[in-house]
Amino acid sequence: MSDSPRTTFGGRRAVPPNNSNAAEAELPTEELLGLVPRGVNLEDYLNVTAVHLFKEKWDSNKIDHHTDKYDNSKLIVRRGQSFYVQIDFDRPYDPRKDLFRVEYVIGRYPQENKGTYIPVPILELQSGKWGAKVIMNEDRSVRLSIQSSPQCIVGKFRMYVAVWTPYGILRTRRNPETDTYILFNPWCEEDAVYLDDEKEREEYVLNDIGVIFYGEYNDIKSRSWSYGQFENDILDACLYVMDKAQMDLSGRGNPIKVSRVGSAMINAKDDQGVIVGSWDNIYAYGVPPSAWTGSVDILLEYKSSQNPVQYGQCWVFAGVFNTFLRCLGIPARVVTNYFSAHDNNANLQMDIFLEEDGNVSSKLTKDSVWNYHCWNEAWMTRPDLPVGFGGWQAVDSTPQENSDGMYRCGPASVQAVKHGHVCFQFDAPFVFAEVNGDVIYITAKKDGTHVVESIDTTHIGKLIVTKQIGGDGIQDITDNYKFQEGQEEERLALETALMYGAKKGMKTEDVVRSRSDVDMDFQVETVVLGKDFKVTITFQNNGPQRYSIASYLSGNITFYTGVSKAEFKNETFDVVLEPFSFKQKEVLVRAGEYMGQLLEQAFLHFFVTARINETKNVLAKQKSTMLIIPKVVIKTRGAAMVGSDMVVTVEFTNPLKETLQNIWIYLDGPGVLKPKRKMFREIQPNATVEWEEICRPWVSGPRKLIASMTSDSLRHVYGELNLQIQRRPST
Q1: What distance in Å separates the CA atoms of residue 270 and residue 659, rounded to the nearest whole number?
Q2: Superfamily the domain 198-508 falls into
Q3: CATH topology of domain 516-626
Q4: Is 485 annotated as belonging to a binding site?
Q5: Could you tell me whether strands 209-216 and 582-589 are parallel, antiparallel, or unpaired per DSSP bridges?
Q6: Catalytic pick among 396, 427, 517, 668
Q7: Residue in 373, 419, 605, 716 annotated catalytic
Q8: Residue 314 among the catalytic residues
Q9: 152 assigned to active site
Q10: What PROSITE patterns does this protein's entry cite (predicted)?
């Protein structure tokens, strides 16, 4: 029998999941290695009397770490960068015989190998590692330069000072005043979110007001959005979002994981996340999506109620997600894709089925093309992908399709989407389909056969935009997502996507009918809410033959998602076209036909089909138009200065012939006033309501006031005012 000691393997002891930044467990204040001998007084050893964190807005810690804008009394620093701490002792510190260290702890079950318990040695600082160095030792005070790891967990840490004695470790008691937030650091080259352009960092991390684009490809509208990432309690709300997701603390230093969890949690579908999506125009017990002016109210309500907030649509999800990312230090921006495909069967084709009379078959048409769709981009390296696929990553928190069992999307490398590398995680095939694909018009014949009538290869992903750096204008980023139509690179990207599993439904070039001599197009007159307007259809005969044409016009109120709510207009008419001639047909649409059906966003969608009797060819065209709606007017009086009272007036005039009921006006201005709302029971036709608020700005520089109005029958009414807030003169 062997004399070697017997080894037993017990079951592995599982440490409970450490998935809450809010949960705490006290570290013992004394870890003595045995009984202290009689006559030994532990007070003879170094005792901590105070800890100073230099955490005021004007202190170098917050200024150097670009965290001075946070309305938060705690120390907030960015990882991978040194900051200063001063420790006062009850006697002078002697480095030859006294030994102490600083410790940072996060969560309930701290473990050094998980990065949730961090003992910081007093040594020379080494790049890429935690460390602390004494930079001043005077009287009874020691000043340290502490550096965190550029890969450390992002969140709120508890701080302790531990002093060695011959009998064990003496540790300071839990003191919430020394709690320290550590964020991602786009200024640190070793951080995964490093961004090397100062103007881009100013825009994508530090700008707390953005512009979100919506509307139509050829009629782009914009609205400002208050991200408010520095407002009081917003940082805690963003950490709470990760707690609610039960995200393990050890993963919270990885921007890939953080952005993916955020993508799932900003929508409430399947995980009790932040916002409930609603596209049905019924917003009982909640706020209509168009009424929100920013993210602050939403995130604060979510944290305080611990329940999802009602209601949001894509631009609301994108606005709140942007706040979450920027607040934690991940560079982020909101992008808008005009004519965004929601491709149900992922075959890169939007199949629009027509009845034989030219009308759209709602039964067969399952794919939808959103007039626009907003998502986010987050900036990070992608060490999990080959070199070259870092940078902007598409992340989308609007609940559309399931990804790994949850409603989320991304991060998908924008570069990978452009080149068709849809094999790379996460959700690249879905994003690829959103910006690529063909719109195909198919006639479903009564005998069950399908005939492809026409193909539009340029409709999907027509234009992709974001807010320009340092201004409110449009930056066209379409080229980031796709090569130009017809280029050799575009064909290669599609072939690559198909090779990696994207599906192409049919070889359309084989089945499209021969081209007709007749062209058809139509224009919709500018539509002002409550007014009549015309739709003009033009037919052009480019051949020597005479043609007779049966035409059909359908007008629908549609959601911006392309889903139709109600048909308000349909008209059939016949046209005879002589050789080499053109004809126009005008259709009058009266205000009364569409006013009673309006939705959250007033899109009127027109579909015109024309059947050429002689050739049986079908021509089809569709266009949407947005109504021009009234604005909320904002005025101010008094000094626009930090700390001075200023009066803000909000006005709205009802332009309609009907009385508006149950009107809410929302007002917001980051750094100028906290979000507010006021209700009016009704506004008579042509009557004006006015609301005054006194505020005292606390942030200088360019600011904005943003207001919205919502009522039972009119929504998406909006207004804004640019301000320049002066600094308070120094005395």
Answers
A1: 40
A2: Transglutaminase-like (3.90.260.10)
A3: Immunoglobulin-like (2.60.40)
A4: yes
A5: unpaired
A6: 396
A7: 373
A8: yes
A9: no
A10: TRANSGLUTAMINASES (PS00547)
